[in-house]
Design goal:
Keywords: ATP-binding, Nucleotide-binding, Transport
Number of domains: 2
GO molecular function, one term: L-isoleucine transmembrane transporter activity
Radius of gyration: 18 Å
Mean pLDDT: 88
Helix content: 25-40%
InterPro entries: AAA+_ATPase, ABC_AA/LPS_Transport, ABC_transporter-like_ATP-bd, BCA_ABC_TP_C, P-loop_NTPase
Pfam families: ABC_tran, BCA_ABC_TP_C
Largest sheet: 6 strands, mixed
Number of strands: 10
CATH superfamily of the largest domain: P-loop containing nucleotide triphosphate hydrolases
Bound molecules: adenosine-5'-triphosphate
Order of helices and strands: EEEHEEEHHHEHEHEEHHH
Protein name: Amino acid/amide ABC transporter ATP-binding protein 1, HAAT family
Number of helices: 9
Strand order of the largest sheet: 6-7-8-3-9-10
CATH topology of the largest domain: Rossmann fold
């Protein structure tokens, strides 16, 4: 794994009128790795995610991608920078088939398909890769949550990203479905895509991430390997709601 950061976040703060949602947060995302962000509800995870993905700019601080300052870039410019994201509330084109959803995404980004044929070929490849090939003719609105989440990833992959942001991709999945999602995320990473994810499901964070950032009340409280983070007394208290001695009871 390369050591250089693909994303560097420097002292970002976001204020919404009177409320400071994120306060002076800094971290980096290592190229080639899987980095996770956790924290209780309202900790500032989505706000941080949205700033890094260009949905709104930080009130203060800077964000760098491969050394370039992208703080003022807009979300629509990201696919051209080989960055893609999924949404917590999924946004498929509901009345289109799974295949057409992925075909539509194939036209976007730095490697946007130049013809219908190229877009279809790309989509077929992505559907094979994500395990959705057999369901390619199903309307996306007729699929269950696990397949819709998979489709979100397929649509993102169709833009050929080098960096993928996953926003609570496992919410609403049962343990077996979670395991499948973990396998797919690992496979995407092994294909060379750097991943940054927000996730409430600890099993997924521990199994996938080599680096975890913990937010609480808008501030970064801990950063480290899953093991370091899960054994941190402050994390146990504020995030898991128990004292260290309780955890060993
Ligand atoms: N657009 C906004 N305008 C005003 N306040 C906001 C806005 N977005 C988020 N907030 C507030 O900022 C704080 C952090 O919210 P955020 O959604 O980033 O937390 P989170 O860690 O993602 O929570 P969850 O796990 O519930 O999604 C919350 O108090 C929230 O109400």
């Amino acid at each position: 794994m390369a050591e250089s950061p693909i994303i560097e976040v420097q002292n970002i703060t976001k204020r919404f009128k009177g409320l400071t949602a994120v306060k002076d947060v800094s971290f980096s995302i290592r190229e080639g790795g899987i980095t996770g962000m956790i924290g209780p509800n309202g900790a500032g995870k989505s706000t941080t995610f949205n700033m890094i993905c260009g949905y709104y700019p930080p009130t203060e601080g800077r964000i760098f991608y491969k050394g370039e300052d992208i703080t003022d870039k807009k979300a629509f410019e990201y696919t051209n920078m080989k960055i893609a994201r999924t949404f917590q509330i999924m946004k498929p084109l509901k009345n289109l088939s799974v295949l057409d959803n992925v075909v539509a995404s194939s036209y976007f980004g730095h490697a946007g398909a130049k013809s219908v044929r190229e877009a279809r070929e790309r989509a077929m490849e992505v559907l094979q890769f994500t395990g959705l090939f057999e369901k390619r003719h199903v309307l996306s609105k007729d699929m269950g949550t696990p397949d819709q989440k998979r489709l979100e990833m397929a649509r993102a992959l169709a833009t050929k990203p080098e960096m993928l942001f996953l926003d609570e991709n496992m919410a609403g999945l049962n343990p077996a479905e979670t395991e499948e999602a973990i396998r797919l995320i690992r496979k995407i990473n092994e294909s060379g895509v750097t991943i940054f994810l927000i996730e409430h499901i600890m099993q997924a964070v521990v199994s996938l991430c080599e680096e975890v950032i913990v937010l609480h009340h808008g501030e970064k409280i801990v950063e480290g390997t899953p093991e370091q983070v899960m054994n941190d007394p402050y994390v146990m208290e504020v995030y898991l709601g128990m004292k260290k001695e309780d955890a060993h009871a």
